[in-house]
Amino acid sequence: MQPAAKAGEQPGAATSRPPLPAITVALPASRYCFVPRQPNLLDALRSEGFDLPFQCRAGYCGRCRVQLCQGEVRYRQQPLAWLNPGEILPCCCTASSDLTLQLPEAVVATGSWRD
Ligand code: FES
User: 25: pLDDT confidence band, cut at 50, 70 and 90?
Assistant: First the structure.
């Protein structure tokens, strides 16, 4: 037996979560865009082949910092690591809008993605 549909839903329609915001990584000669499958930004980037370094995964060490070029993120709790203007800590945040990021050169140079 199928559950009752809510107002505005078609009976029997599959319920699904809305897609997560799109992530764009600015590369030297192009851009790499993807829709993450997990909300944690560090996990999303690593699952796409960006070998972003990390240590604490809790916003203390600053090891995972990247430059946010466009968009907004949300932190579970305010991170303690010191950040330069425009930097974010993907280990402890989620995208709250479509994002454009610039990753450290060392990460971009060793990625498994195509430029
Ligand atoms: S891994 Fe430590 S702040 Fe992100």
Answer: very high
> Band of the pLDDT at 11, cuts 50, 70, 90?
low
| Single-letter amino acid, residue 69 | C
Structural domains present in the chain: 39-108 (3.10.20.30)
Task: Say yes or no: CB of residue 59 within 6 Å of ligand 1.
Answer: yes
CA of 80 to the centre of ligand 1 (A): 10
Compute the average pLDDT of residues 44-63. Answer: 96
Q: How far is the CA of 70 from the centre of ligand 1 (A)?
A: 21
Alpha-carbon distance values, 7 to 1, 4, 11, 17, 54 (Å): 18, 10, 10, 17, 44
Determine whether the shortest distance from the Cβ of 46 to ligand 1 is under 6 A. no
Taking alpha carbons only, the member of 109, 95, 90 closest to residue 27 is 109
- Is residue 48's pLDDT more than 50? yes
